[in-house]
Amino acid sequence: MIRFLNVSAEYAPGRGIQGVSFSIKRGEFVLLAGPTGAGKTTILKSIFFELLPASGQILIEGKFPRINKKRELSRLRNKMGIVFPEARLLPDRNIFDNVALPLRIAGEPRKRINLEVNRLLFRFGLKDQAQAFPLELSSGEQKKAAIVRALIARPFILIADEPLANVDSESSAEVLEHLAQINAEGMTILAATHVPEPYMGMANRILKVREGRLVE
Q1: Which long-range contacts (CB under 8 A, 24 or more apart) does 168-177 make?
Q2: Which of 3, 31, 39, 86 makes an SS bond possible with 59, Cβ 3.0 to 4.6 Å?
């Protein structure tokens, strides 16, 4: 589904990844682990081409995306669910509208939007918060809402950068349970973290990164 072939990329001079190769198969839960500054976020940004590789190649669903074509690149990103360390919810919109945004951008009919948004909000325990605004939610609820928004368009992969960041232990356990459930249903997940212990027993594989290189 995703394959890196000797990829190098930099976000600043001398800071990035060098010669990274790995693959992720459909339905896997892969953990990208390493200390802060190891290159985890660089790898994630390279997958959805926020950073372009300086060398090497990246295959997405068996193809080399034509990253010089904005329409194709936009279509590719829309097929990925992305969760950042901070929730990045729009503060002037309620949770329902935040979650519905990707479907509205895609031009989906109102009936389907209402059905899909309410279904996922209920599943993640957020139905009662649908009309609340982000700042009225706890950090754990905000993170769950961000995951729901990432899943709403039924992406082929969920990419989560530090999904437990800024979340208390009780909410972390709940987020992990949801991730395990959606992975069991077939969703491919790539999660990056500097604290891998909570994911033990969940991830199929762990890719360890240090100083910009894949070490294990």
Answers
A1: 168/139, 168/140, 170/140, 171/138, 171/139, 171/140, 171/141, 171/143, 171/144, 172/140, 172/198, 174/125, 174/140, 174/144, 175/140, 175/143, 175/144, 175/147, 176/202
A2: 3
